[in-house]
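In the design runs reported in the main text, the only information available to the sequence generator was the tokenized backbone. The following block is the verbatim input for one such run; it is reproduced so that readers can re-run the procedure and compare outputs position by position.
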């Protein structure tokens, strides 16, 4: 029986085969694509980032990894590691590069784009299921806090926030208020951190002011997709969560199919 690679072995394999530096999201995607690990947890990209950042902090010059940009790494002994890096000047304060600033959870911890309203069984506390990568552990974002957008097709018709009531509850309320018949999809940007086992953490007490501007810009680029912004929000480094249909919807579909079949007999 073939032994599964450790996270470290899988990361080294991916970086060793790459001719360019890779963001930890890209490393995680490659690990999954090459089927290097079966057990991915709920946050494979964050796990990759934590593995590399921990090694750099703990092992220093003896670490096999080198950080070349925010969340972007190469092997320390590669030819790319010999190239000088140039840091552009900034008007806003520079945030020191530490394990904390490389964490998955800076401002926005997780987000989902254009999730389908009809993939959810609506109730006061609905299941908002998503996964970071195909094969990862599903996460229920019902209790997530942050901001959300409602769409009619591709048009944004409403922007709201979840502070006193969680995301699931706020969306449920929109299924019976004045917007009830006007929206069919929604996007959300969450602030509560997601653990490797898929549970949501607590809201940070404070945020570094230097992180607020790029985070706000990244959210607007992702949410509005302006034509002149040719790239995704580059400061929204967290992985997007893919929506999973509520299992209750699937059960209802099967039940309806059985009823139709019985009626035809």
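Verbatim output:
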């Amino acid at each position: 029986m073939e032994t599964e690679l450790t996270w470290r072995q899988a990361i080294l394999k991916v970086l060793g085969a790459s001719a360019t530096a890779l963001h930890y999201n890209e490393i995680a995607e490659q690990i999954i694509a090459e089927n290097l690990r079966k057990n991915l947890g709920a946050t494979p990209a964050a796990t990759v980032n934590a593995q590399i950042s921990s090694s750099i902090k703990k092992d220093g010059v003896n670490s096999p990894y080198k950080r070349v940009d925010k969340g972007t790494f190469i092997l320390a002994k590669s030819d790319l590691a010999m190239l000088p890096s140039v840091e552009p000047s900034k008007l806003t304060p520079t945030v020191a590069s530490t394990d904390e600033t490389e964490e998955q959870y800076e401002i926005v911890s997780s987000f989902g784009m254009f999730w389908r309203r009809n993939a959810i069984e609506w109730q006061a506390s609905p299941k908002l299921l998503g996964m970071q990568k195909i094969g990862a552990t599903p996460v229920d974002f019902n209790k997530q806090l942050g901001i959300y957008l409602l769409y009619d097709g591709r048009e944004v018709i409403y922007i709201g926030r979840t502070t006193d009531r969680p995301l699931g509850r706020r969306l449920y309320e929109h299924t019976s208020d004045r917007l009830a018949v006007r929206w069919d999809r929604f996007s959300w940007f969450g602030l509560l951190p997601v653990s490797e086992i898929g549970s949501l953490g607590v809201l940070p007490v404070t945020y570094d002011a230097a992180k607020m501007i790029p985070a706000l810009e990244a959210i607007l680029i992702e949410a509005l997709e302006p034509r002149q912004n040719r790239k995704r929000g580059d400061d929204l480094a967290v992985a997007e969560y893919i929506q999973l249909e509520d299992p209750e919807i699937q059960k209802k579909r099967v039940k309806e199919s059985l009823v139709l079949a019985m009626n035809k007999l």
